[in-house]
Structures are given as C-alpha cells and as structure tokens.
Design brief:
The chain is of the alpha/beta class. 35% of the residues lie in helices and 19% in strands. InterPro entries: HAD-like_sf, HAD-SF_hydro_IIA, HAD_sf, LHPP/HDHD2.
C-alpha cells in the first residue's frame, strides 16, 4: 500500500511539474502546521522563506489562525527567527473584519481575547451577528448559550472566521472552531457564512491584497488538504499539500478524486504533494 501510494504521488508530482512549467507567478503559504507548530518552526521553513525573497517572487502568508491578532503572530514568528512584516500576512481575522464592515454588521465576538484588537473599530452594540473564531477558553455553556440567544432573532446571522475541524499543537491534535460553529448551526437551523479558508472569497481577496488577478498562476501551499489545497483549487489556483502539521497519511488520496474540469487543466492536475514547505519551494523554484 505504501509503495503504491508513493508511486501515485511521484507520478502526480512529475506530471504536475511538467504541465505547470513556468506558470506559477505567486505563492500563498499557510502558517500553522506548514511553517510552525505552536512555538517551534518546522525544519527548513526559514530556508524556504529566504529562497522566496531572493527570487523576488510574489508571495503572502495566509492563515486561518483566529486565536490571536496578526501583530501577535508576526511577533511570535520573529522570536523564532522568521522575520515577517504584518503586510506579508493575510489573516482570516482581517478578512472577517472587512466582511463585517462591508455588510454593516454589528458582531457579538466569540473569539479569544488575543484576537479582539482586530475588531476594535467595530460597533458591537445590539449585535446582529455572532462571529465565531478559535476561542478555547470561551467554548463553554454560558458563552455558547449567549450566542444562541442572539441568533434566535430570525434576522441575525452566524459568521465563522473559519470552520476548521482540528489543528496540530505540540500536545497533539486539538479541536478547531468548526465543531462549535456546527453546534450553533444545529441549534438555530442557520448556516454560517465562512469567511476564512476554504471560502473562494478568502483566496480571491488574498490575491487582491498582493496586486494579483489571475488565480491560475497562483499556488497555495498548506498542510490541510481541504481548507488549503482543495479550497485553493476551487478558487482556480493550484494547490500543494505538505506532509507536516495536521496532515494525516492518506490525505493525498483525496486529491486524486477532485471533481470539476476548470481551465486550463483538470483540477487533479493542479495538485502537488511535498514533504515540507522547503521541499515544495525547491520543487517549484528549482
């Protein structure tokens, strides 16, 4: 089974690289699980970042992390030796704030205290929307019940910063925000609007933030086969799955059954598998 999977993955990698040729002009890279796990960098991450900068290729780090503000994420990575600027990161928190502003929504924020600064300028009086991010210390009956009561008004909405099922920590896999969003959906018979990955709007806005317009010349690199890779493919980009973070053996098999046939290639031919971010960058920027 392992040999068979290796042969399929190797065939796919060679086929994809041949057909992508020089098409890739812009890189989007996940952070948690791809660049780092908690307070530890994944080996090779700094080398990959330095190679990207030397080639002057367009890139942006895109993250579904909703438990802390972008400024905190940047500071934490800086302390690990990866020196990013805030402008080099596009966050689901940023996307959510922009969505709320565009739609004149007043949020009740079920987010971690460390993420609140991203929403400081918003009107939170008489909320008409419940915004759910990763807030482990607030996922309790009292807090969720308050959200439920707000959502019992027919006109009020649920906005999910993301709907991630789980993520990788030093202690192992941990529940993401998704199961708690589902609880509120189930209780209220309402469907949440997902603002972060894998929503198509997130990828398109990330692309706009870097001054790029053609998704077929972009690649998204990440450890989540659903939110990172398949989400990017649905948005018209290429996708590269790395075997770090939340990756589980067999995730790559999902890429062989991706549906649709968008131009310029069938979706399955816009997928790549690599061991790490460094390996992915070395494959795409030889």
């Amino acid at each position: 089974m392992i040999l068979k999977m290796f042969r399929r993955t190797s065939f796919l990698t060679n086929k994809v690289l041949n057909e992508w040729d020089n098409r890739i002009q812009c890189f989007f890279i996940d952070l948690s699980g791809t660049v780092h796990v908690d307070k530890e960098l994944i080996p090779g991450a700094i080398n990959a970042f330095e190679k990207l900068k030397k080639t002057q290729t367009k890139f942006k780090f895109v993250t579904n992390t909703s438990k802390e503000a972008v400024s905190t994420t940047v500071q934490n990575l800086d302390s690990l030796g990866l020196q990013l600027s805030k402008q080099e990161v596009y966050s689901s928190l940023t996307a959510t704030r922009d969505y709320l502003v565009r739609n004149n929504l007043r949020p009740h924020l079920l987010v971690a205290d460390e993420a609140l600064e991203e929403f400081e300028s918003l009107d939170t009086n008489d909320p008409n929307t419940v915004v759910v991010g990763l807030a482990p210390m607030k996922f309790n009956y009292k807090e969720l019940n308050e959200c439920f009561r707000i959502l019992m008004k027919p006109e009020n909405k649920i906005v999910a910063i993301n709907k991630g099922r789980y993520y990788k920590t030093r202690d192992g896999m941990s529940l993401g925000a998704g199961p708690f969003v589902f609880n509120l959906e189930f209780a209220t018979s309402k469907e949440a609007t997902i603002v972060g990955k894998p929503s198509k709007e997130f990828f398109i806005n990330a692309m706009k933030s870097i001054g790029h317009e053609d998704p077929s010349t972009c690649v998204m690199i990440g450890d989540d086969v659903n939110d990172d890779v398949m989400g990017a493919i649905e948005a018209g980009m290429h996708g590269c799955l790395v075997k770090t973070g939340k990756y589980r053996p067999g995730d790559e098999d999902k890429l062989f059954s991706v549906g649709g046939d968008p131009e310029p290639y069938p979706a399955k031919e816009r997928c790549l598998v690599a061991n790490t971010l460094e390996d992915a960058i070395n494959l795409l920027l030889p």
